[in-house]
Structure formats: C-alpha cells, structure tokens
Fold this protein.
Amino acid sequence: MSQAASQALFALVESFFTTYLPRQRGASPHTIRAYRDTLKLLLLFATQHRNREVAALRLDDLDANMIAAFLDHLETTRSNSAATRNCRRAALRSFFKHLLRNDLDHALRYTQVLALPAKRAPLRLGHYLEAPDIRAIIEAPDRRTRQGWRDYTLLLFLYNCGARVSEATGLPWSDLQLMPPRQVRLRGKGRKERLVPIWSQTADALRRLHGMTDEGQRHVFVNRHGQPLTRDGVAYILAKHASAAAQDRPTLARDRITPHVFRHSCAAALLQSGTDVTVIRDYLGHASIATTSRYIATNLKMKRDALQRFWKHADLEPVETKLRVSVIPGHAFR
C-alpha cells in the first residue's frame, strides 16, 4: 500500500511537469524550472519532517499543515522574503490544483492547501539611477578590446530597451533590425513578444559587435567560449563596470547595482521625459499598468517637478527663493 501511494504521488508529479505545464498551460521553460525548484524544496523539507526517504513520500504527507510549515521554513530558515514566499506558494497552488483535478478522492486535503492565504509583503521601492550615473557605467568598459566592446554594447542595450536579463541573454541576431526602422523583438515572460525601437547609437554598437562575431554564432551576447551569457555573467559584468565607474562617482558604491536596476532606470527616464504610462507599460512588457505605475512612486525628480508646479499654481513663492533672499551675501550657514 505504501509503495502504491508513493507511486501515485510521483506519477502526478511527472504528469504535472511533462504534460500539464508545457502542453496544457504552455508554460515557459523558466516557469517550469521555477516550479520544479519549489517542489524539490518541498519534498526535501517533507523528508526531514516525516523522517523517510524521498521515494517513500506519499500523497497524504503533503497536507495543509506540512505546506504551512514549509512556507514558514522559507522565511525563517532560508531567509526568503515574503514576496519570494508568495511566489513559492503560487507554484504550489498550481501543483495542488493539478492534484485536485486528478485525485478527487482526497479533494478536501487539497482544498485545505489551496485555502492557505498569501502573506502580505511590503512594497519595496524600485531603485534606479539617474542618466549621468548610467552613462558613467556604460562608458566604463575598455572599448578597444572585443570583450570591452561586448560589455559596452550589452549595457547600452539594457538601458535602451529596459530589457530583462533573460531577454538579453537569449537574444538571437535574427531578432534585430539594425537598419531604419531600428528595432528589436524581445521575447519576455510567458512567451510574450514585443517590438522595441533602438537608438542609432545602439544599432551602431550592435553592428560593430556583429562584425566581431564568429560565423554561425546565433546569440548576440556570448562569453569567451561562444556560449550565451548567463544571468550571473551579466550581473558580474555590470558589477565590474559599476565598481570602476564608482571611482569617479562615489555615490555608485553605496548601492548594489543589478541588471534590473538598469530596467528601473530606463522606466524612470521614460517617465521623466513625459512618456505616457501606458506606452511605458508596452515598452517594458508589463502585464499590468499597476506594475508600471509603481515607478512613479519612486521617481524623486517627478515629485520635485510636481512640487514646483504646485507652488506656481498656488501663486506662492518657492521656498528656495525665500531662502536665497534671507541669506546675507558673503555669509554662510553655520
């Protein structure tokens, strides 16, 4: 009986990853990997609490109490944030819906798991850099070398397009149009595609990079072995050049600058230029305009401009002007 119960569990695990996610839902490889990692963590956690081997786990081992304990374990032991906990919960919900569809005899157990609530996660303000800081990082690579030109082109591309790391690392040459109208086809989350215009400067950099590319090389941004750059590889390149730029701009050394910071910085620059939020949503490939609107909350320049417009509309003298008038020439604040 125990062996049959274990086989039933892993038969459903296999059908979840081989049939349901790729064929019925059309999930992307990235989504499948994320769900696989979540389920792997859960099974390892269950083996420790049930004191048995993974192969001996049964369907009745995965009840609501076990899942609730696992979600708490993610935060307390693995130091995951509430947002990461909620992402893991979403993956488990998808798996338990699959169990519910295929094992109605234990429907109550599965619905109890599905009833576990998400944890309220604090909304973190997106960190972004102003254009002069971005420019300093982009210009840091040594463009006299092939690797330096690749780094320069990669950083310029990330800022120009607001591309996700996966969109840049998976970019093939066939998705680029370097002659007018210059544009790139980006393949984002959920197999969604979007066309993004690119600057002539970016197109020129890509054209020169293509001239340095080995014949038959499919991907744009590759490592020294001709393989596509990884997520960690892009993060390393950015961190290296951000550190170099920080020698002249010390403020860059205060924060951890990741590829996603470039994406935030692109969104902030578009907002500051007066671009409509709906256009920015399509430019960045956001599923909801609510995601794009979060950039407004973090954009200090827009808040300062709004404050100045408010003072002007209220017909009041700006505070800065009053301060300048009150300071006696030749004296400074003590």
